[in-house]
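[#protein-structures] MJ: dropping PRA1 family protein here for a structure pass
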Amino acid sequence: MSKVELAPLRAWNDFCPGWERFAKPDTSDLAKWNNRVVSNLLYYQTNYLLLAVIVFLIVGFQNPMGMFTAAAVVSAVFLGSVWAGENRAVINHFKRQNPTAFVVVVMVASYFLISMLGSVMVFMTAITLPLALICAHASFRLRNVKNKLENKMEGAGLKRSPMGILLEALGQQEEGLQKIHTLWRER
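AK: finished. C-alpha cells for PRA1 family protein:
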C-alpha cells in the first residue's frame, strides 16, 4: 500500500479559467457525468478543501457553538456510516449496490440530527454551501489532460490521496462507476 499524498494546490487559472472550460453536464449519460465529477474531485481536491475551510471558518467565527455542534454530528454520522458499511453485511451490500443513495442517506441523517439540536442554519451554510459549490464546479468543469493523467495514476494505485480514500469509503471507486455505466447502458 502506498502512502497518502495530498494533491498539489492547482493554480487559479486552472481551477477557475474562462467560461470555455465549463460546460453543462450530459444528464442523459449519468456514468459520464459521474466520471467527470469524481475526476474533478480527485484532481482539484486541495482547492476544494481550501474553499470549504474558508467558508467553514467564516461561518465558524459567526456562530462557534452551532458550528461545533454541526461538525460533531456530521463527523459522528459519517464515521458511524463507514463503520456500519464495513461491519454490517446488509449495509455493506446496500453501499456497494447504491453508492449515491448511501451518500444521500448519510447526508439526510446528518441533517435530521442537526435539526433536532437546533443548528440547521449553521449546517446549511457551513457544510452545504461548500458542498454545493464543490459539486457545481466538479459537475460543470471540463477535464483536461493533466486531470485525466492524475486520475489514472490514482486509479492505478501509484499514489493515494485523501479524496481518493474518502470516495472509496463512500463507495465511489472506479468499479462502482463501471457498474453504473453498465446498468445505464442496459436501460
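MJ: nice. Confidence is low (pLDDT under 50) at residues 174-187.
AK: one more thing. The chain has one domain: 29-186.
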